[in-house]
Amino acid sequence: MEEFLDKLPQMDLMRSEKMTLVQLIIPVESAHRSITYLGELGLLQFRDLNADKSPFQRTFANQVKRCGEMSRKLRFFKDQIDKAGLRCSPRHEIEPDIELGDLERQLADHEHEVLEMNSNSEKLRQTYNELLEFKIVLQKASGFLVSSNAHAIGEETELHESTYSNNGFIETASLLEQEMNPGPSSQSGLRFISGIINKDKLLRFERMLFRATRGNMLFNQTPSDEEIMDPSTSEMVEKIVFVVFFSGEQARTKILKICEAFGANCYPVPEDTTKQRQLTREVLSRLSDLEATLDAGTRHRNSALNSVGYSLTNWMTTVRREKAVYDTLNMLNFDVTKKCLVGEGWCPTFAKTQIHEVLQRATFDSNSQVGVIFHVMQAVESPPTYFRTNKLTNAFQEIIDAYGVARYQEANPAVYSVVTYPFLFAVMFGDWGHGLCLLLGALYLLARERKLSTQKLGSFMEMLFGGRYVILLMSLFSIYCGLIYNEFFSVPFHIFGGSAYKCRDTTCSDAYTVGLVKYRDPYPFGVDPSWYGSRSELPYLNSLKMKMSILLGIAQMNLGLILSFFNARFFGSSLDIRYQFIPQMIFLNSLFGYLSLLIIIKWCTGSQADLYHVMIYMFLSPTEELGENELFWGQRPLQILLLLSAFIAVPWMLFPKPFALRKIHMERFQGRTYGVLGSSEVDLDVEPDSARGGHHEEEFNFSEIFVHQLIHSIEFVLGSVSNTASYLRLWALSLAHSELSTVFYEKVLLLAWGYDNILIRLIGVAVFAFATAFILLMMETLSAFLHALRLHWVEFMGKFFHGDGYKFKPFSFALISDDDE
């Protein structure tokens, strides 16, 4: 047996890549180029040898700070380009590499130029806005002012309050009477202030004026016909022109202070019509000049931003790469001589040759007299986990990593999930009509794969696009299971030939509940369509899907236990095989494996035995005769043997392993007492370069290990029952999906189609399409997806998967995102 197991392959594709801890000793003159080339290769994960230092105490802190400042300037340019509405496509020709210092000077010059233009433009825009507001006030306020010959009183807001005639506040004449009196306003003491204010502040502004002047004022307003641009936000703002009539210097002071507080701009408007026209002409002339100046400034600014925009993408990439290089250099140690840097990191074993070649090329390109020293170190800590994936397997690997990253060289569940995950989904979602709809969606994503991969998608669309191959496999398996269930939007079809049943006589030609007899071989593939609509449809499909769920669940849990055996064998843990794997296999299969055997025998023989009765009385009365529930000869003694095996397996799981570990520890401890003091030995059962080293200094606590084993044993025993029951969700969701499809088909589509009215038929088709798309294709898909996820994370992976590793994150320019600036 041992020879057979030794000849089995080591499951290289099923485990993470073998990792090697390496050390680099890099001369200072070639350090930057070496790290740059390693970033382009992307196969080396550096360890931080300066973790005890703050970012400001590291060697290349100034360079990192400079790169951060350049990133800020580049983001500033990008914001300015977006704000100006420019579209600057990057140049396609290859630009020469630019030194960091030259780029820094260029960015400083460009930033100074753009800031100066922004400042000038803002000042000009402020002046332009003031002149524009002045022009609007001149045009609108003149309607409120009274000339010596006529009164042109526009829209006004009269505040009818009792405070007009309160004690102590009665003027010699009311403001309206003063306004209506002919003659210049200076003779009656009536004065006015005109200006303009934002529309959203008008109501509060008017209320404040009324309270400050105790109602002794007249407020007129009219909307401006033009919107004015806010220089700070570049948004168009709607404003209102106002004219406040009042009397007295004290009221004037209050009104001006309120205008200043509310941001209202006041402008002097002469009462003389001739002066108004002359002033309006001057303002229009200055506005025309300022418009020309602003247009010229905008063109010059856009030209400057365009020149930056052509190289902006390349510059951002360069700065991101340089910052990443200096961040990595900060993880290296300076040697005492200050002439070289020492770094350590993990790399896949297969990549050692490529890394060595890259370092040689960096030495040659930097004209260094001393080459980079690259050698393998002895690993003590656990290496990172690295799986090489492709477009198909990457999504499944991400699903597994969401639960936990596999321990180094642990069996990878993602390899099996490529098949088992979409298959269990399809068992719950089986309908080849719905499967075809999913397939069309997956094919659409695959057809636009190249275009969508370069676009910035929303969170939901990005999730769909990332799982496009998962959706493809789920749709294919759904079509397969739908053909087995013989359901196309809940409608059965005679795809693989005629039914095996026919009517007993002519009276049952229109009946589906009685009179059917089997007259030929069974339907060749899947469920016979004659079961649908019959009296026994639901009991038959319930029995079929429930038993199938148990068979699939026991098979997958056994697969998980077998993988735990290969894990234990790979890591050389014979205790886990003898005292964990074997009793777990015995316990699970003595009870639920036996149930699966009974299901298969019942299907093959057509027996009417009650499996519930068999399993219950296997525990309650194991020696009692089975009678009509006996499925095969020797069933009763076999049940007694399996029951005893299950009871023996529980203490087998619980007691031997903690005592065996205690015995091994005592033997090691006695051996070490005769050793040399201060020796740094590793565990005896771990090879010197094993990743499981580094735990030899942990103190052995027997009670803790025993309690852990007790918890693990109880969890497995109870979990065997609960996990088997958990797989019944395959039956429940499959039945729910089928019944929902039937309800929508019969109670919506067929019901609407029974009317001769075309409108009712169209409404029925629309409701059926809506229900199919949003309930069956979206909600049911998500539900089946999540249930399949739980079956893998808990029931399957819980049998062998530790998930306490950490990902391999190499230094790679390809992995640097825009958010890492």
From TrEMBL:
Segments forming a coiled coil: 100-127
Membrane topology: Multi-pass membrane protein
Annotated InterPro entries: V-ATPase_116kDa_su, V-type_ATPase_116kDa_su_euka
The organism's place on the tree of life at top rank: Eukaryota
Membrane listed as a keyword: yes
Main location: membrane
Localization (cell): Membrane
Annotated transmembrane regions: 423-446, 467-485, 548-566, 586-603, 638-655, 758-779
The keyword Cytoplasm belongs to this UniProt entry's keyword annotation: no
Keywords: Coiled coil, Hydrogen ion transport, Ion transport, Membrane, Transmembrane, Transmembrane helix, Transport
PANTHER family attached to this UniProt entry: V-TYPE PROTON ATPASE SUBUNIT A1, VACUOLAR PROTON ATPASES
Family label: Belongs to the V-ATPase 116 kDa subunit family.
Function: Essential component of the vacuolar proton pump (V-ATPase), a multimeric enzyme that catalyzes the translocation of protons across the membranes. Required for assembly and activity of the V-ATPase.
Name of the protein in question: V-type proton ATPase subunit a
Organism, scientific name: Camelina sativa (False flax)
Lineage of producing organism: Eukaryota, Viridiplantae, Streptophyta, Embryophyta, Tracheophyta
Encoding gene (name): LOC104786844
